[in-house]
Structure formats: C-alpha cells, structure tokens
Amino acid sequence: MRGLLNLKDLSTDKILELIKYAEKLKKGFRIQYPDKKIATVFFENSTRTHYSFQCALMNLGIKIIDVDTSHSSVNKGESLYDTVRTLEALGVDGIVIRHSKDDYYKELENIKIPIFNGGDGKANHPTQSLLDLMTIHEEFGKFKGLKCCIVGDISHSRVAHTNIEIMQRLGMEVYISGPEEFNDNSAPYIPLDQAIDEMDIIMLLRVQFERHQEKMSITVEEYHQKYGMTVERMKRMKEKAIIMHPAPFNRGVEIAGEVAECEKSRIFEQMTNGVYVRMAVISDSLDGNL
User: Fold this and answer.
1) Strands (DSSP E) found in 5-120
2) What SS3 class is residue 146?
3) What pLDDT shows up at residue 279?
4) What band does 78 get if pLDDT is binned at 50, 70 and 90?
5) 96 near 119, Cβ under 8 Å?
6) 126 has a pLDDT exceeding 70
7) 3-class secondary-structure state, position 165
8) Burial 95-127 (b: 16+ CB within 10 A, else e)
C-alpha cells in the first residue's frame, strides 16, 4: 500500500530524506500539483493534524475534499473500507485518515491510492514523529547522542510509541517518566527531576482524559506538582535544552501556562514544521517515491 502508514516500514535513510525535504520546503522550495484531489477523513477530533494537512495540501495546490464523518454513510453502518473505496472510485488521488482503531490501515490493503495516516488508536502517528524529528534536527543539527525524556501518559500515546522506536534507531537515548499507572515499559524509566537536569529534550504528553477508562489516582493539581513542567523545573534545565509537546496541551496540568511559550519551548515551532513535513510526505508520495 502506498503513502505513509507508520515509520517502522521506512528505512532510517528514507526518514532522514523526508526531514531534509521538509527543511527544503520550509526554506522556500515550491512544487505544485494543481490536478490532484486528496480527501481528509477524520474519525476523531483534531485541530493541528487535520488543519496542518489541509494547509500542506493548499500549499501544494491540491484540491481538498474534507469528509464530514458525522454526516457520512459511516453513520448508516458503512465500513471504513467501503468509505475509502468509494472515495477512490470517485477519483481522489489520496486520502488522509485518522481513526481510533490501532492499525486501521490493515483493512485497506486493496486500496490503490496513497493513504496518509493521521493517527491510529494508540499505535502510530508518523507525521507527528517526523515533525518532532525535524524540530530536533533544526535545533541540534544531529540526533545521535541526544537525550530525550518523554513525560506523561505513555501508555495511551501514539506519539510516544512512534517516537521511541525511531529516536532509538537514530541513535538517541530515550527515557520515559510520569505516573507509574501510565508506564508501559516501552523505554527506561527515569524520575522527572533527574530528567530535568540531564536531558537535551523534555517532551511532554497531554494527559488524555478522554482515553482513560479508569480514573487517575491523583488530581490534576497533584499531577502538575509532581510531573508537570513548572517554571522552577524549566529554570533547572540545561542551557541548550528544549521543551516539546505534540499538543493540544493542558495549561496548568502537564505544563505551566507561562512555560508553554518560554524561550526553551518549541511547541509552536513544531506546529509550523508539521505543515512542511506533511507537504514533504504528500509530495514524495505523489511523485511515486513513497
């Protein structure tokens, strides 16, 4: 199947190539596909990913078909496959999909047009990982030897699960921190205050209240005190260390409001880079390289 479904299927060289292509696009390189049409189909709420893909498509001169799933035949019982097959039959040249089911794209193996994964369940979020990597590369000019701690709701996070695997492949040291109930042992655990002193990158995760089937054992105020990026913790970070977050972020929970836009924060730069990464992925696919 063409497109981008996860990063595990891509070589390290291909991942680096996409990051460099995104950086080239950010510096002003332009390419257009005025005869192409791509559908965006989001079965979960989204702001950054949904509209970042749409901005990327507009920048590439591609016509957008934004499918409103709340008024589609999905509500009549139509399967994901039949929805996608219908769009393919209507002549779209690719489809961006976000879905709550892990590895939903395995149902779409007979689809011939490119599929771009905008996030699946708790498993994969490939373009988010690529934009994170682009942001890190812009900051440090390398990956090997950098230390990153991902903090928070690890077990429910497709961002964490995607980033850990690819960061380790690129030679980064990756750790996790946060409440024990969110620890899935996907990377070595480190106490947050130790991470603050030692890491080059602190990557915070949103506490995903909507995914919790059990109640948290601590209040949001306690979470912020124990595991949040407070002003005091920010001041203790290494001189050139940075703060990242895939967003949306809960001010006063995983990050203090004044820290979200401090000089160490790269949160909004990540959002900017998301447009160029998605332009790179779509362009590379339409050119037959992905």
Assistant:
1) 37-42, 63-67, 94-99, 115-120
2) coil
3) 98
4) confident
5) no
6) yes
7) helix
8) bbbbbeeeebbeebeebebbbbbbbbbbebbbb
pLDDT digits (tens, 9 = 90+) for 183-221: 888 899 999 999 999 999 999 998 866 555 455 677 888
Give the C-alpha separation, 64 to 83, whole Å: 16
The tokens for 189 are: 């655990």
- Scan for tokens 């790269």, then name that residue: 266
Residue 248, preceding peptide bond in cis (omega within 30° of 0): yes
Domains of the chain: 3-124+272-286 (3.40.50.1370), 126-266 (3.40.50.1370)
Query: Is there a contact between 251 and 224 (Cβ–Cβ < 8 Å)?
Result: no
d(CA 5, CA 97): 10
Residue with tokens 């949306």, as numbered in its chain: 248
Task: Report the candidate in 83, 7, 10, 9 with the shortest Cα–Cα distance to residue 40.
Answer: 83
Q: Once rounded to an integer, what is the mean pLDDT over residues 104-119?
A: 95
DSSP assignment of 221-274 equals HHHHHHHSB-HHHHHHS-TT-EEE--S---BTTTB-TTTTTSTTB-HHHHHHHH
Provide the mean pLDDT of the chain. 93
Which amino acid appears at position 124 of this protein? N
Cβ distance 147 to 194 under 8 Å?
no
Dig out the tokens for 123 from the structure. 């498993």
Question: Rounded CA gap, 172 and 23, in Å?
Answer: 20
129 has a pLDDT exceeding 70: yes
Mean local confidence (pLDDT), 78-101? 96
